[in-house]
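Table S2 (continued). Query chain:
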Amino acid sequence: MYKILIVEDDETIARLLREHLEKWGYQARCAEDFKQVAKEFKEYAPHLVLMDIGLPFYNGFYWCTEIRKTSNVPILFLSSMSDNMNIVMAIQMGGDDFVTKPFDLNVLTVKIQALLRRTYAFQGSASVMEHKGVMLNLSDASVTFQSQKIELTKNDYKILQILMERAGTIVKREEIMQRLWESDEFIDDNTLTVNMTRLRKKLEELGVQDFIKTKKGIGYIIE
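Corresponding output:
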């Protein structure tokens, strides 16, 4: 289920957006502390952000810039400030699209679907998975974090892909081994542990700490 963070200070609009998105099967959350939007973004780790421009304390351009320091997650601006200068600013600051208020919810939904599809669906060399700023490139088996990039082995890549596909859910060791070696034959349990240790070490080299957590006796999870 895709997660969407709504950064909108008009409570009526924010609630309307959340309820509409939930009807479409998305998990939606409204930002609560407009002094700590970047912190809420990091904690929630959404797949897409709906960003108003006129916000208390700091405007949407500022928060877009802050998010872009750690993540390439799609950001869709929503604003009644729809003159050309603001639209240009929104895109230059890292926004992916702009919708003018008042907007049609169905049109907005189509734009959201298109952004999610372009970002997360398989599209050859542009195919990328993202979680908490960690970018897994499915076309060249590399992982990127804060502009640093590292190549992965076949097993490292498969393990990270499996866990990122199921982010927020515990994946059993047996399931990972089955998908990793595509065999019903017995695989030494320590082999997976060795592979997992190597992957964690590579992520730590990128500055990503505790990205993969162990659930003792069960499996692993990316929270």
